[in-house]
Structures are given as structure tokens and as C-alpha cells.
Write a structure and sequence with these properties.
The protein has helices at residues 8-22, 39-42, 85-88, 117-130, 143-151, 156-166, 169-173, 189-198, 219-239, 250-260; strands at 32-37, 53-56, 68-72, 89-95, 100-106, 136-140, 178-181, 204-207, 211-216. With 270 residues, the chain is of the alpha+beta class. It folds into two domains: 1-115, Class II aldolase/adducin N-terminal domain (L-fuculose-1-phosphate Aldolase); 139-270, 3-Layer(aba) Sandwich (L-fuculose-1-phosphate Aldolase). It has a nine-stranded mixed β-sheet with strand order 2-5-4-3-1-6-9-8-7, with helices on both faces.
Length: 270
């Protein structure tokens, strides 16, 4: 059996989580990440026949039964993941229709998956139904996007249009837009179900006064989505109180999308 600390999926996840902390997105134990893995990716690093313990999930996801996930632990400090990945990460396999998570590696301090596990797994389910290549769900607390939810309307079409106009890159990176949830209590199945529903039409879902969820085919894509949206929010906050003399028009946005092959959310341009 190979050393799991050298597994490409683990090395990349640790590096990404460390960068999320350095960006200031994941203070204390804020934020969580899950990565969908194929059996062929994990079987050389863990004994998939040896279940260390089982953890009830509190929800059902029969479509993902038998699938493998690398998931951050509840209470994990992102700044420490690089030093203690065996404590702050866990390799899980869903069983019993998704009602049980079988721990194959990690959570060595006796911990368990993130309190937002329902939001992650149900979002994976939604994204896979739209794009089978989507394998990452990432949650963080970018300050600029959170601040924007205090001063900007939460209509997701208008929220998206504001972000699109802040810099050319936005239309290239997320032409499918940004969905928005009003404030809800975190760590519940209810917010997990609501997020998963929003994930059917966009890879970014803002939680007002809390943070954002991003989905992607890999860790870099999910990270880049959040990074781009938060930079756009930062630009918005810098100019929102100033008279705007020029901006990107809808025709400009169409031109960008057409040139770079992005499929714009239908009806979100005038």
C-alpha cells in the first residue's frame, strides 16, 4: 500500500485549503471542502475493505451510494490542515443509501465530517446531474462577497449582473451566474437542500451574511470561481458610493461570452 500522504488528491487538497486560509477566506474553523474520488484513485492508498468506523449522515443520497469523498472535519482549522491532514481530513464512502458514511482514513482525533456535510453531498448530487465532471464542492467566507450581501439587493439576476460588470473576467469565468440564498441557519439539512437546489443552475451559490459555495471539475476551478467573484465584489465595494462614468454594457458582456464560448444564463442580459 502506498503512503496516502503522497496521494495526488491529498497533496492538492492540502495545498488548496492552505491557500484558502492565506486568502483570508477561512478564519478559525470556517469553511469546508469535499472532493469526489473514484475507487481507482484511492485503492492504492487505503484498504477499501477496512472500515474504521461508521458515522450516520442524517440524510439520504442513494444516487451517491458507494462513492468516495475526501472531506474536511468539523471544527478543523484550515491553517492547521497542512500540519495534521490525518486529523482534519477524512476519506469516506457513502453506504446504506447515503445514510451512513464509512470512514476509511482520517479523523484520527475521533472527529467527523463537516457540519455542512448535507450541503456538500446534496450539492454534489445536483452538480453531477448537470455536469458529470463536477467533483469539488468548496465553501468559504470571502469578506468582500459577504459585505456585498449587506448593501446590495439579493435578487440573484441583479447580483450577478453587478458582478459581471465589475471586470471582464467575470463573464468568462462564471457566465452561468451566481445564485443567492437569503440568510438561513447553517449546519442544517434545510440549508443543504436549498443550496443543492440552487446548484442545479449555477456553480456559485452565495449565502447572504455568511459566505459562498463553489463547484468545479477540480480544486483549481472551484477556487478560481470564488476568487474571481470575490475580487469583483471588492471592486463593487470600492466604487458603489461613487458616480459611475462608464461600465460594461450588456452588448459588451455578450461580446465577451461569444468570443470565449461561454453560455450566458438565459434571460440575464437585457
Amino acid at each position: 500500500m502506498k503512503d496516502i500522504m503522497t496521494a495526488p488528491f491529498l497533496v492538492k487538497t492540502v495545498r488548496t485549503i492552505t491557500e484558502m486560509y492565506r486568502h483570508g477566506w477561512d478564519e478559525r474553523n470556517g469553511g469546508n471542502v469535499s472532493l469526489l474520488l473514484d475507487e481507482v484513485e484511492v485503492k492504492d492508498y487505503v484498504d477499501i475493505t477496512k472500515v474504521l468506523r461508521t458515522i450516520p449522515t442524517g440524510f439520504e443520497a442513494p444516487e451517491l451510494d458507494g462513492r468516495y469523498f475526501l472531506v474536511t472535519s468539523t471544527g478543523s482549522y484550515f491553517r492547521n490542515v497542512q500540519y495534521e491532514p490525518e486529523k482534519d481530513l477524512g476519506l469516506l464512502r457513502l453506504a446504506d443509501g447515503g445514510r451512513t458514511a464509512e470512514l476509511l482514513w482520517g479523523y484520527e482525533d475521533g472527529g467527523k465530517f463537516t457540519s455542512e456535510f448535507a450541503a456538500h453531498i446534496l450539492s454534489h448530487k445536483s452538480r453531477l446531474s448537470v455536469d458529470p465532471q463536477n467533483r469539488v464542492i468548496m465553501h468559504s467566507h470571502p469578506a468582500n462577497l459577504i459585505a456585498m450581501t449587506y448593501v446590495h439587493g439579493l435578487d440573484e439576476r441583479e447580483f450577478t449582473r453587478t458582478l459581471w460588470r465589475m471586470e471582464t473576467e467575470c463573464m468568462i469565468v462564471f457566465p452561468d451566474g451566481v445564485n443567492v440564498l437569503p440568510w438561513m441557519l447553517c449546519g442544517t439539512n434545510e440549508i443543504g437542500e436549498a443550496t443543492a437546489e440552487k446548484m442545479k443552475t449555477a456553480r456559485l451559490v452565495v449565502w447572504a451574511q455568511h459566505g459562498i459555495y463553489g463547484a468545479g471539475s477540480d480544486l483549481d476551478e472551484a477556487f478560481g470561481l470564488i476568487e474571481t467573484a470575490d475580487k469583483a465584489a471588492e471592486i463593487y465595494l470600492k466604487i458603489a458610493h461613487l458616480p459611475v462614468k462608464q461600465t460594461l454594457t450588456d452588448e459588451d458582456l455578450r461580446l465577451i461570452a461569444g468570443h470565449f464560448g461561454g453560455k450566458v444564463r438565459e434571460g440575464w442580459l437585457d
